[in-house]
Amino acid sequence: MHYNTISGDIRIKQAQTELGKNAWPEFMQHDALVKKHWPRLYSEFLDFQFAVNSEKDIVGVGNAVPIHWEGGFNDLPDRGLDWAMAKAVEDHVLGLTPNLLVGVQILIRADQRNRGLSYDFLELMKRHARTNGIEHIAFPVRPVHKRLYPLVSMEEYMGWINHKGESFDPWIRVHMKAGGKIISVCTESMTIQGKVNEWQDWTGLSFQSSGLYIVEKALSLVYIDLEEDIGEYIEPNVWIIHSTQSSIA
């Protein structure tokens, strides 16, 4: 099947919205900081958003934000995606020249998965970075199978391997084969807060006592406080760095 790339086109926004509804659980749509800055992707940072289509249908999208970073990769903040979204906007307002691209997400339509498109999307994001004179991409990676092991720490999980000695997690494994390097866990990559009744609506669960809860598709536990009427989910991700010169191993 033949694929074409679309970049810098506002049509990507609609495709991303539709794909996101099927890809992410409802509670993931309520990170206040990400939600606040998300429209900037399709205004100030439109050139860093792209899609891949087959004939007339868009089969996947990639989103990223450019930032100015003067520290080392080992110093990337624990706040991961939340930090990157806010910093991209701040740097743009200050007129700082970006030198690091942060990969926000790659979404592929369900019927197009397991065809190697993930590698193609990583290469396309590297191409976009190179075109803009950026040598590295930092990804706050959300390991795809961590949701099955919410009681295991991310530090432990990211070291798991399969029978081939490769990373146990399929999404981390793709990044490694595409030339990525694991840097560290960003322990507070996303913070999602809401009232208890909102969490009940988002998850379909009944929270009748305060404490920690396993929620479907959450990578870690959700804390519910009935007295304060608040639920909080702090998601850890994994910082993975790519050189825009590297490719699939």
Observed structural traits:
nine-stranded mixed sheet, about 250 residues, alpha+beta, 7 helices
Could you tell me how far the N terminus lies from the C terminus, measured between alpha carbons in angstroms?
24 Å
Could you name the ranges where pLDDT drops below 50 across 5 or more consecutive residues?
A: none
Query: How many distinct helices?
Result: 7
List how many beta strands DSSP finds: 9
Please state roughly what percent of the residues sit in beta strands, choosing from under 5%, 5-15%, 15-25%, 25-35%, 35-45% or over 45%: 25-35%
Element order, helices and strands?
EHHEEHEHEHHEHEEE
Structural classification: alpha+beta
Please tell me how large the radius of gyration is: 18 Å
Mean pLDDT: 93
Shape: globular
Helical content stands at: 25-40%
Main β-sheet description: 9 strands, mixed
Structure description:
The structure is a single chain. The chain is of the alpha+beta class. Helices cover 28% and strands 28% of the residues. It contains seven helices and nine strands; from the N terminus they run E-H-H-E-E-H-E-H-E-H-H-E-H-E-E-E. Strands 1, 2, 3, 4, 5, 6, 7, 8 and 9 form a nine-stranded mixed β-sheet that branches. Strand 4, helix 4 and strand 5 form a beta-alpha-beta unit. The chain is globular, with a radius of gyration of 18 Å. The model has no long low-confidence stretch (mean pLDDT 93).
